TrEMBL record:
<dbReference type="InterPro" id="IPR035919">
    <property type="entry name" value="EAL_sf"/>
</dbReference>
<dbReference type="InterPro" id="IPR050706">
    <property type="entry name" value="Cyclic-di-GMP_PDE-like"/>
</dbReference>
<protein>
    <submittedName>
        <fullName>EAL domain-containing protein (Putative c-di-GMP-specific phosphodiesterase class I)</fullName>
    </submittedName>
</protein>
<feature type="domain" description="EAL">
    <location>
        <begin position="1"/>
        <end position="87"/>
    </location>
</feature>
<dbReference type="Pfam" id="PF00563">
    <property type="entry name" value="EAL"/>
</dbReference>
<dbReference type="InterPro" id="IPR001633">
    <property type="entry name" value="EAL_dom"/>
</dbReference>
C-alpha cells in the first residue's frame, strides 16, 4: 500500500454495519483507522447512518464520513443549497464539514 499513489482509504459500509453490537467489528475498524494513520493516509468511511457510529469512528481516528446521517444522495446542482441551508440553520458541525469535504 505504501507504494501505491493514494492519499486516502475509503472504507466500505459493510465494515461498520455491526459496530454497535459486535466487538470484533469495532476491533477491525479501529485497526483500519490505525493502519491509515501509521501509513499517513486519510481514513474515509462510507455508510454512516447513526450518531453512535459517527461517535465511534471519530474516537477511532477516522478522518471523514459519508452516509445518510449527513444527507441522502442528491444531484450536483442541489449541493450548493444543501451547504447553505446546513450552515444557516446552525446545525453545521465539524463532522458534517468532513463528510462534505470527502465529496469534493
Amino acid at each position: 500500500m505504501r507504494r501505491l499513489p493514494v492519499d486516502r482509504i475509503k472504507v466500505d459500509r459493510s465494515f461498520i454495519l455491526d459496530l454497535e453490537k459486535d466487538a470484533s467489528a469495532r476491533d477491525i475498524m479501529r485497526t483500519i483507522a490505525v493502519m491509515c494513520q501509521n501509513l499517513g493516509l486519510q481514513c474515509i468511511v462510507e455508510g454512516v447512518e447513526s450518531h453512535a457510529q459517527l461517535q465511534f469512528l471519530a474516537t477511532a481516528g477516522c478522518d471523514g464520513y459519508q452516509g445518510y446521517l449527513f444527507a441522502r444522495p442528491m444531484p450536483e446542482k442541489a449541493i450548493g443549497g444543501y451547504l447553505r441551508n446546513r450552515n444557516s440553520c446552525g446545525r453545521w458541525h465539524e463532522a458534517h464539514a468532513r463528510a462534505v469535504s470527502t465529496l469534493i
